[in-house]
TrEMBL record:
Coiled coil: none annotated. The chain holds residues 307 to 462 of 462 of the full protein. This is histidine kinase. Residues 1-152 form the Histidine kinase domain. It is found in: Cell membrane.
Length: 156
């Protein structure tokens, strides 16, 4: 179906904000009708949950998590940025590979398997979107940006 990404993101982020209230949250949202995308709503929720899960997991309490949804030209963008530990440059190209976990994360006993980002990327690309992970330097946080082709109503 056609969904308003801004509405889905607002609902998911609000829920996470309530549960993880020790992080500082920022949320910036475009008008819903500007953010229409042809994709499955449950899939988008799944992606957002995985990304917010990572942001919370790798960001200390009191530090910030910022989510933004906007439309620019024919694209709808979603960005999740955190002030957490960041990702080492040598790990960065691999974090969207299945079962890849950065060294630091590998030593944790949290029962995660390193599938989250790989699945997110596969879902986003399935809907002809782009999935990008950035991290400037370790300690400066991580940014995940997604870009989807905006749904445009066709005129007769
Ligand atoms: P799970 O399968 O439960 O999601 P995971 O978090 O280890 O486990 P991914 O979500 O695929 O797996 O992430 C892969 C790796 O990328 C992580 O192990 C972690 O090292 C790194 N990573 C992902 N998100 C962040 C983030 N927001 N901040 C820092 N490191 C991150």
């Amino acid at each position: 179906g056609v969904i308003a990404v801004a509405n889905v993101a607002k609902r998911v982020v609000r829920k996470w904000q309530r549960i993880h209230s020790s992080h500082r949250w920022e949320f910036e949202n475009a008008m819903p009708e500007e953010t229409l995308v042809q994709m499955n709503e449950v899939r988008l929720e799944q992606v957002l949950r995985a990304l917010l899960d990572n942001a919370c997991k790798y960001t200390p309490d009191e530090k910030g998590i910022a989510v933004a949804v906007w439309r620019m030209e024919d694209q709808v963008y979603v960005r999740i940025r955190d002030e957490g530990e960041g990702i080492l440059p040598e790990d960065l190209p691999h974090v969207t590979e299945r079962f890849y976990r950065a060294d630091k994360a590998r030593s944790r006993q949290e029962g995660s398997v390193g599938l989250g980002l790989a699945i997110c990327r596969e879902i986003v690309e399935h809907y002809r979107g782009r999935f990008t992970v950035r991290s400037v330097t370790q300690g400066q946080g991580t940014e995940v940006e997604m870009m989807f082709p905006a749904y445009v109503l066709k005129k007769e």
